Give the backbone structure.
Amino acid sequence: MPLAHHDSYADADIRRILKNVKTIAMVGASPNWNRPSYFAMKYLQHKGFRVIPVNPGAVGQEILGEKVVAGLKDIDVPVDMVDVFRNSEAAGPIADEAIAIGAKVLWMQLGVRNDEAAVRAEAAGLTVIMNRCPKIEYGRLCGELGWHGFNSGVISSKRRKG
Amino acid sequence: MTEKNFSYGFETRSIHAGAAPDPSTGARSTPIYQTTAYVFDDVDHAASLFNLQTFGYIYSRLTNPTVAVLEERVASLEGGRGATGCASGHAAQLLALFPLMQPGDEIVASKKLYGGSITQFSRTFKKFGWNAHFVDPDDPENFRKAITPKTKAVFLEVLANPGGVIVDVEPVAKMAHDAGVPLVVDNTLASPYLCRPIEWGGDIIIHSTTKFLSGHGNAMGGVVVDSGTFDFTKKGKFPSLSEPEPAYHGLTFTETFGDLAYTIHGHAMGLRDLGPTMAPLNAFLTITGIETLGLRMDRHVQNAQKVAEFLEGHPAVSWVSYAGLKSSKYHSLAKKYLPKGPGSVFTFGVKGGYAAGVKVVESVELLSHLANIGDTRSLIIHPASTTHRQLSPEQQTAAGAGPDVVRLSIGLENAEDIMRDLDVALGKTVK
Ligand SMILES: Cc1ncc(COP(=O)(O)O)c(C=O)c1O
């Protein structure tokens, strides 16, 4: 049964996640500079996040200055958030690994949704976001998405900080 | 997860959506960013922008901060995901179809469109290899019958220019979706205050912002709004969006940008390569106009209703085509799609044909004799002697522009003054 609380997310919750997270493990990060995951990683690095690429097919390479690791358990620093750049089915085992390494947030990319995985992660105390892109959400909430004509849904009479 | 988003009302979004105090000065009104280009932090930042890897401005042919406020505002009012501002309503039609069409593809369009749109579709777009088929919208089945495997879009005006016609959008949207193509709706005459076609199944909404959105007859402009809900990835139907784009090193818009793809394409391909950019000053005037959209549309509708009822009872008038009148065959569709009123552009027939029509438009003192609609000022035109004069009498009648037809765009003046002016002018036709 689809989880109704994952059909939409409150801006305040997304804001809090993006404010508290420092280190992101990006599962499915591509070394190809023209792939969506590379775009997202580059943007998130620029916004001050540390992004660790996870991709068994690219172990030993570097992406944007970070060494690629094979799996989440190979990361030797605390991971705040696991960002799933894989399909919905693959998100299941990745969720279990995220629980195992003690990540606080499980984030599945735009088009990726696995409700069973979300139930397990939430039971283990993780915050779960599905079918969203952290780059798009960051840009939306800080006003940058509006630069490109998108409906951010944000209304505020306060000066925006850069 | 605790808090809930709430949504602001239409009037609030008309004033605030897309706009925030200027980050550096605190200026509360949206500044006119009268600049062609924007500095890069360094070469890597420039590369990220050119590769579409990050958000930001490069060059005003593609994006501009003042135009962006307008884009977000109209996207919000229409309930869409994003919008592309452009130089005119005609540019919006070109940009709306550009991501969908390849040479040899077809559009199925309502016959009841602004005359300039019929010409644009049937003559100019033909030169791109885009073939338009026009159908009578009074029977929605006609759209289904005209759709072929080459059809890439269905196009209609929900409230049609010139004469009080309303198209039954909901079944047409269903037919388009059954055929796997988007419904494009020109919502110029209604404005999102009176009708929001996305709520009835519209996928892409276009406006000539020149009309009611800017509202003061002082700024050309257009906008294309994407609902963000149409699936462009289906079976290679829309290769511009769903197949690798050589101009961006083989990037695929739908894969990389998800539901932002159509609007990113509108800027990064449409505006970049076709070039019909909106001027920042026009965006500023249009943003300012939209702040009062609801107030103005309410008054436009009130005045139009009074003038239409007055004309219906006038001895020099043979018929009035306004969907707010009980005599209109579109009255029940108006109640469904435009519950706040069917706009303020309509036609009427003057007894005495061509000569009487000419007499009316030349005799008015308050109404302005010109080719536009959606102004604070009331406007009048005799299509047979102006916009449709190159057509044969038969073609004129088919287009709703027969010799006796006069078109009005009722403005915001005192309604008694508008009626008195028309009464005096009509009196001169029977002398
Ligand atoms: C319904 C409609 N669509 C499109 C247009 C074209 O708009 P523009 O003149 O801004 O190019 C017009 C202009 O009259 C119109 O009335």
